[in-house]
Amino acid sequence: MLLALVFIMGFPLSLAAAGNEGFPGEVQIPPPPFSEGIFPCSNCHKEMPVNPKRRILKDEHTGIVFEHDAKNRWCLDCHNANDRDKLKLASGALVDFSESYRLCGQCHGTNLRDWKAGIHGKRTGSWNGKKTYFLCAHCHNPHSPRIKPVTPFPAPVPPEGKFLRHGSAGK
What is the DSSP string of 114-137? Predict the structure, then answer.
């Protein structure tokens, strides 16, 4: 059984292998990139009655632009209504935000496969040792996940007096 060492709010937590198959050895996952002051969600939602009606939020979370299959999805398709500190899989199983890749992977299976294999997403570490895999939300806004276009930097300028030829070491 593989174990993933996951850091939740700076504290390590060992998770059983459920949903973690395919990880090569010990994998560390940094905490999700929460906006300042919004987690744990239960701080505000603890005493708040659940309104399951699909609607535009007008009082709180107004800065969220929801474009993630907005015709067919809304908040409570991914966020758990009864425990706001958890995400909800399609099966109804609850997962921590540190395992959000399992939620994303339900619809984006090829990306999840590629992420586990090291083809998609950011990771650091040794090829044959400890690795750090960054969550989908470190690069994609889960509410509006399409990567925004960026302007590329200009090409580098060779140092003055150094001319590089194909196959040369710049001597």
Answer: HHHHTSSS-EEE-TTS-EEEPPHH
